[in-house]
Amino acid sequence: MDRGIPINAESRPNGSREVEAKAKNDLGVGLQQQAEQGLDPVRNLERALTLFQEALELLGDRRESTVYAGVLVNLGTTARLLAEQDIDRQLNLLKAGSALQEAAGIHQRMGNGAGVATSLNSLGLTYRLLAEQEEDPAGHLRKSEEALRIAAEQWHRLGQEGGRAAAMNNLALTYQVMAQRGMEPERHLQQAVETLREAARLREAQGLWLGYGRAQANLGTTYRMLAERGQDAPVHWESARVAYEEAWRIFHALDRTSYLVPLRAELRQVLEALVKAGVEVDRNRSRLEELEGLR
Q1: How far is CA 239 from CA 157, 160, 285, in A?
Q2: Mean of pLDDT values over 148-174
């Protein structure tokens, strides 16, 4: 889950309204963190959204500032997270898109590259969510792709490879949705593979193992989607198995049980497909039996 951005020391508030705005913003960030931890997420996100709106009102005369833009990013991200909780989904997605577009524009004018990248990353996720509920999703999916690609490039220019890896992981998920919705499936799935490989490489280099495991799990899903399309299926099933097993190793080492449960189902599907295809039958049957014993 995304976290809000506190107003930092570089943005020292000068008046009582700015002091109050900072306090409301930072309290909203704290509520986002509680939501991330599973503590009454809907209520805490709704409270955070109200606090960010109040902070913007207090900063009304400073609309062209990185402080105002930072609160906009927090508001937009929170609205998107509420939409993911199925709370006023369409309304909150539109609210998120509007806030994040405005924030990206302000950050761009102020020369704040990190702010641009942060805004565009969340905006790309918002566009993808909008697309998922549309009969004709192409427009929003292309906007999602563009926003996330630019965010990744911006983080790279800033030397912030952690941000780049996160944006690339999100970009790959947009490529997956493009394929699912019939938009040049083969090409977009291959792009997802390349993007996730790079995201995993970056996470491994940084020693950010949870992010590395997530990238490997997403890579496994992409290979599975390629296999299900029929071309070079055994090769793609095996690639999916390798990626899923690597994700399993990481999540198990980190004791992330919540990640292992859905991964087990994905891995079982791949192993069953490999057995059916006659690939390393004994090995894959043995692994299936092992997974059954872990229930």
Answers
A1: 32, 29, 17
A2: 97
